[in-house]
Amino acid sequence: SQTIHQWPATLVQPVGSPLSLECTVEGTSNPNLYWYRQAAGRGLQLLFYSIGIDQISSEVPQNLSASRPQDRQFILSSKKLLLSDSGFYLCAWARGLQETQYFGPGTRLLVL
Amino acid sequence: KQEVTQIPAALSVPEGENLVLNCSFTDSAIYNLQWFRQDPGKGLTSLLLIQSSQREQTSGRLNASLDKSSGRSTLYIAASQPGDSATYLCAVRRVDSNYQLIWGAGTKLIIKP
Question: Which among B34, B42, B103 is the nearest to A43, CB-wise?
Fold first, then answer.
């Protein structure tokens, strides 16, 4: 069976510090991978998605970036965090663009 | 531009009641619609997926309907239990833009014992 992991679970970072959130998927190959941000009381916002190891699409202009160093690993990064980057970050995988997405447990980020 | 709205934002009902959660969307050109459940501080779990050609899907005590022409979906929960307490999110999948999901803000459901 497939599992998806995210770490860390919780992170408190000062403004201006760097960020690295990691997502890994087990039990499948060549998954589509997604990064979402969820703000309180709002729907999920798609940040990045990747259909292959060298194919990453950015959906929202921001100071965040994504990388996929391995087939089943998706990294969300920032060089300098802003207060507005606080939120709940969710990683998801799917077998295809039209397929159901399966979500990780999330990372809660607080920027102070 | 597709927009998804879920009303009410929060709902509290006694255990055992049947209830309906609502989801509306502005553009009827959708590929499918999904309902998800999110427990506090956790990730999302897919509950039901309705293809654009379907009218409803059922899983246990859950029944989701889709009326594409009116831009509406409902999630019916029968005989509610305290374990059903969670936030329920609706998402529609676009037919363009690489089949992105467009999300509602969710309905927070509390089932009182």
Answer: B103
Q: What does residue A76 show for φ and ψ, rounded to 5 degrees?
A: -110, 130
Distance CA B91, CA B106 (A): 9
Rounded to a whole number of angstroms, the distance between the first and last alpha carbons of chain B is 41
A40 touches B: beta carbon within 8 Å: no
**Cβ B98–A97 below 8 Å, yes or no?**
yes
The amino acid at residue A77 is S
List the single residue in B4, B42, B105 with the smallest CB-CB distance to A106: B42
Inter-chain CB proximity A103 and B106 less than 8 Å: no
- Provide the residue-wise pLDDT of chain A in tens; the chain has 112 residues: 889 999 999 999 999 999 999 999 999 999 999 999 998 878 899 999 999 998 999 888 678 999 999 999 999 999 999 999 999 999 999 998 888 999 999 999 999 9
**Cβ-based interface (< 8 Å): residues of B facing A:** 4, 9, 31-32, 34, 36, 41-46, 49, 89, 91, 93, 98-106
Please check whether residue B87 is in contact with residue B70, taking contact to mean a CB–CB distance below 8 angstroms.
no
Q: Is the peptide bond before B40 cis (omega within 30 degrees of 0)?
A: no
The full length of chain B comes to: 113
